[in-house]
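I am still learning, so can you show me any protein sequence you like together with the matching structure tokens, please?
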Amino acid sequence: MRAALRRTGTARRSCGQALQPGEFRDRLTRDVFNTDDPSDRVGLLEHTLLKVIAAEEADKKLERAIRKGDVHRFYNNDWIAEAETKGVISEDEARMLAEVRDLTARVIAVDHFDAAELSRRQPAQHATPSAFAPPKTLSPPNRMTMPTPLPTLHDWRLSVDYEGIAWALMDREGERVNSMGRRLTEELGEIVKWAETAAIHGEIKGLVLMSGKPTGFLVGADIREFSRFATEPQVKEVVKETLGLFDRIEKLPVPVVAAIHGFCLGGGLELVLACHYRIADREEGTRLGFPEVKLGIFPGLNGTVRSIKLAGPMDAMTAMLTGRMLRPTAAKAIGLIDQLVPTHHNLRWAARKAVLQKRRAKGAPWWKQMMLKQPVRSLLAKQMRAKTAEKVREDHYPAPYRLIDLFEQYGDDPARMRVAETEIFAPLMASDTSRNLRRVFMLSEMLKDEAPKNGFKPKFVHVVGAGTMGGDIAAWCVVCGMQASLQDLDEGQLKKALCPRQGAVQEAAPRQGGDRRRGGAPHRRPQRQIRQARRCGDRGDRGEARGQAEAVPGP
């Protein structure tokens, strides 16, 4: 291997010396007519070569900027001018690269003919008896095929680069994050329709799905639009449309790559699973998961079938039943992600390579797929029910139990599982349980929106429950200078919370102290408050200590 690398390096250096003007190249071209006159056909090659060598450093700067995503090399974009505007290259370097681009186009250009000269002859209906028969009438001029026009979009940005790779960026208009609303889904359908036509005509080599938002990929369905799912027929109608769209993505004749940065949850992850290849970055804000079970449902866009196919039954069912968000490394380990890159700056370059190399996911290994066979599948389902019963009751949360039933009955038959998934999903979606859980979720999101964004500093904290954790929370709030109160049904718990636990906090409080003038946190007064609270607890008083640590009996 080392010898081969040395030979490769030697060959590379030899080629470089041959291309660079100098003594080595002069010996190779001795007695050979050579000119750099661009008006001469031979001289044009030499002239272009010299210009390419001179612009090599500027070209490297431009390539690095394109790989980072600072400059976009789209077919309808002058990336050299964009690089100059963003300060990647200087004005002279931009002029040099533009000249090289034009000269290269002259070198590789072929003769162009008028469309009228390229007319086709009509195919002969019958063989002519004589070789001297008059020629058939020529057909009308053959017109040049125009590229498929891009659709007009609001929640997506669609473009095609010079290599024929289509880039679809989700950027929902007027929203902080991307979610699967009606318009975003409909426009995705238009993109898929355009990609189907462009792929047939050979206009694109692949399609890449990315997010145009800085903090997230696709957080799932838009819960605000769940009013459409009032009845089971309505649920089935909407689900059927989305399932057809995802199947069309899966059947595209060109590679479809998902480049993931940020949160990819619920329906977003199901969309990603319909792609042929998945790439995610390792950044802290990137998470993947199926949180549907927390809303009283389970993945209903064939996410059950596709996740089991890629990750195997155990890992896929665990992810769906728990609703936990997975780190990119964990998702890669179980097979939901095919490739990891360090940062989101590397996503575009990695997606490009995946498209050009026509990469596809391998799926779960054979030993994982063997778990889908009976009687192993029934044993796994039994264990899943036992673990689920330890957490929730079936009459309160039926969704995980219905998911286990689906897996046990149709786990080894993907076609039947796809159909049964919708039949089981629709009643759950229209149930009161799911409706109430979605309402709780919406209320929690409203509370988050109402909270002050900047400069909020709480002054009073009320803790319900004076156990181990509650007592510590109240004590530390006092240490930090806030007024705290405790509430509990057991008077003994209140005494414990106001005595030994706050004494332990007192020992840790000096480490939190400081001088106001030196920028530290002044916690001397809270220490005295803790001592007062401890003395109040010793006396059995359920009152407050200097108005800072207050014990409130429960109802």
